[in-house]
Amino acid sequence: VGELQKVVTERSSQGDHHVWDDAWSQSLTPWDAQEAQPGLLWALNYPEIAKHLPKGGKALVAGCGRGYDAEQLAKAGYSPSIGVDISPIAVAKAKEWFAAKGDQSVKKAVQFFEADFFKLGTSEGNLAVGTDVTVAYDYTFFCALPPSFRSMWADIYSKVIKADGVLICMVYPIHGDRPGGPPYSVSPQMYKDLLSS
After folding, report:
1. Distances in Å between the alpha carbon of 91 and those of 45, 67, 72, 86?
2. Per the CB 3.0–4.6 Å rule, which of 9, 49, 59, 192 could disulfide with 73?
3. CA 191 – CA 180 distance, rounded (Å)
4. Are 70 and 112 in contact (CB under 8 A)?
């Protein structure tokens, strides 16, 4: 993580998104757990949570990396399940992984795109996700963002998620002070404050 922080911190705070390509090309990807996040699987399958999730519709995973979570959302019935990443290397790895190891029964539902999350739902965006996302999932995306990007993060989600849609956030890391990031320390209250304003 220390090496990743050196590579990413200064450049990402200046808006240099190529830093994520560098991380992928140098295999500095400690967030890549080689599988879908257990918290997402729990949320999709735990009855007390799952009953509050919309059934079907479009899913979005920003900063999708290798795409495991987009696959899980497709398996849960969301179609299309769109994984976006600003890194073309990450998107290529997602497509490669899914072709080799992904659940081919949801092949038509899973889509991966290189796109700038902060332009989704705007006229500048190169990917028209629309404003009808039913469920979006965030685990290691928010905590990787420099704090100055956080209000834009909330603005974009408010544009692309339907009024009755859901944003599932796994809040991590919540311990310690990580002023240099990424990952930056976050708290449930940060998410609540940003999403309620």
Report:
1. 27, 8, 17, 8
2. 59
3. 19
4. yes
Q: How far is CA 190 from CA 125, 147, 184, in A?
A: 26, 10, 12
pTM of the model: 0.89
CA–CA distance, 183 with 82 (Å, rounded to integer): 23
Q: Cα separations (Å) of 9 from 16, 115, 127, 153?
A: 10, 21, 27, 18
Strand 133-138's sheet: what is its strand order? 110-114, 81-85, 58-62, 133-138, 161-169
pLDDT-based confidence at residue 197 (cuts at 50, 70, 90): confident
- 37 is written with which tokens? 């996040």
> Closest by alpha carbon to 17, among 82, 81, 123, 89?
89
| CA 170 to chain CA centroid, nearest Å | 10
Mean pLDDT, the chain, integer: 87
Can you identify the CATH homologous superfamily of domain 32-196? Vaccinia Virus protein VP39 (3.40.50.150)
Read off the pLDDT of residues 70-88 as tens digits, 9 standing for 90 and up: 999 999 999 999 999 999 9
As a whole number, mean pLDDT of residues 176-181 equals 64
**Domain spans in the chain, listed from the N-terminal domain onward:** 32-196
| Rounded-to-integer distance, Cα 135 and Cα 50, Å | 12
| 124 burial level (CB within 10 Å; 0-12, 13-18, 19+) | exposed
What are the start-end ranges of the E strands in the chain?
Answer: 58-62, 81-85, 110-114, 133-138, 161-169
